[in-house]
Structure formats: C-alpha cells, structure tokens
Specification:
CATH class: Mainly Beta
Order of helices and strands: EHEHEEEEHEHEEH
Largest sheet: 7 strands, antiparallel
Mean pLDDT: 87
Number of strands: 9
Strand order of the largest sheet: 1-8-9-2-7-5-4
Radius of gyration: 18 Å
CATH topology: Small Protein B, Chain: A
Number of helices: 5
CATH superfamily: Small protein B
Strand content: 35-45%
CATH architecture: Beta Barrel
Structural class: alpha+beta
Helix content: 25-40%
Length: 149
C-alpha cells in the first residue's frame, strides 16, 4: 500500500470516531497528478447527498504533461464522487445524525492498483483537547530522549 496524500492536520484538529475505505471517481490526468503528489487534503470534507457521498475541496493540481486543453477545463477543487455501498452510506448518515460529526478524508493510497480514499467520521476538538494532545507529544519526546541517554 503506497500512500499518495496524507491529511496531517486531521488527527490534531479532530477526534476520529470511525474509519471507512472508499473508492474515488477520478479522471486520467487527475490520477497521474495524484501519483506525482500534486494534491492536498487540507480543508477537504465529505457530504452525503441523495444517498451518494461526495468529497469537496480536495485539491488535485493539473498534470503538467497531460493534454493542456483538457487540464484548462478541469477545476482543481471540483466535487468528486466516492464509491461506497448503500448500506455503508446509510450507516454513516445515521452516525452523523447521532453524534453531530463531520466526514473528513484522511489519506489517499493505492490498494491493488486502485486509488482508495480513507475517510473518517470525526468530531472537532476544542482548544483544551488540542493542548492536551500537544502535552502528550512533548512527554513522549522527553521519554525517548531520556531512554537514549
């Protein structure tokens, strides 16, 4: 499994409740641009509309070696459809209503020659939780330093 894009801020800003693996509908040039790491998941989120799930604000830059006329027509942050079973989409919808959470993409990766997107149901952390996370990271660093010496 080769990770193409990672959402580094997701684990700091959100508390992850549950993860899902989804396929993603991409165009040929978008696949090539994603392979060359010309993309970003910062600020991306997912919505459920008419029993379908879409990812918004996922930035994939145009592929520089591709067809220039085709690249001009494509918007880097266009809405892309995610491929999940209806039962999974309903489960996510019920979970969102129950916990008042959001759906965020965590990473994009290759899985058996197909590009998959790992999405998560997450709740936003408040400032106290973020401070606690920072303290825990600092304590772990201190422990590693103590063990080395």
């Amino acid at each position: 499994m080769k990770i193409l894009v990672n959402n580094k801020k997701a684990f700091f800003n959100y508390e992850i409740l549950e993860k899902f693996e989804a396929g993603i509908c991409l165009l040929g040039c978008e696949v090539k641009a994603l392979i060359t790491s010309k993309s970003s998941l910062d600020g991306a989120f997912c919505i459920i509309k008419n029993d379908e799930i879409f990812v918004l604000n996922m930035h994939i830059s145009p592929y520089q070696y591709g067809d220039q006329n085709f690249n001009i027509q494509q918007e880097p942050t266009r809405t892309r459809k995610l491929l999940l079973n209806k039962s999974e989409i309903r489960k996510i919808g019920m979970f969102l209503k129950k916990h008042r959470a959001t759906i965020i993409p965590l990473k994009a990766y290759f899985n058996h020659k197909k590009i998959k997107l790992e999405i998560a149901i997450a709740q936003k952390k408040n400032n106290n939780d973020k401070r606690q996370t920072i303290k825990e990271k600092q304590e772990k660093r201190e422990m590693r330093r103590m063990i080395k010496y």
